[in-house]
Amino acid sequence: MDRIPTTALGKLLTVGEVAERSGLAVSALHFYETKGLISSIRSRGNQRRYGRDVLRRLGIIKVAQRVGIPLSEIQAAFESLPQGRTPTAIDWQILSGLWKDDLDERIRQLSLLRDRLTGCIGCGCLSVESCPLRNPGDRLGKEGPGARLLQAES
Questions:
Q1: Which helix (DSSP H) or strand (DSSP E) does residue 70 occupy?
Q2: CA–CA distance from 153 to each of 108, 112, 122, 136, 146 (Å)?
Q3: 129 DSSP β-pair partners
Q4: pTM for this model (two decimals)
Q5: Of the candidates 61, 83, 79, which has an alpha carbon nearest to the alpha carbon of residue 70?
Q6: 3-state secondary structure (DSSP) of residue 123
Q7: With CB atoms 3.0 to 4.6 Å apart as the test, which of 36, 48, 72, 86 could cross-link to 53 if both were Cys?
């Protein structure tokens, strides 16, 4: 974290101001900073100060997390953004484009699960051999005895 003279602090936001404006806890801001998702500079009194661009970045983080994007993927996407500049609508289009295929696959898997769930509830989990979610086509029986880890159907 860089140090700046206190005379330049008027244009920057304190951690409390960022927390209030973003609706996030101060601890969340510190966590995001340790993960490299946002950055601050330090005053001469060693207090964190944030550029106003951090508010847009926090908005992107919140939206991305809400749709299930892991922080590691958000961080990787943020590496394409310039530091110290508020992300633009074009930046958001690029980031959302990176996540679209992954979201489409999650939607497909959830739709498959939803469509098979009625049959699963209907069987009452009485037959592991014929469960369409746990063991479609008795695939596990063909793999031999013992426990098996299942992935979602492709």
A1: none
A2: 10, 8, 20, 9, 20
A3: none
A4: 0.64
A5: 61
A6: helix
A7: 86
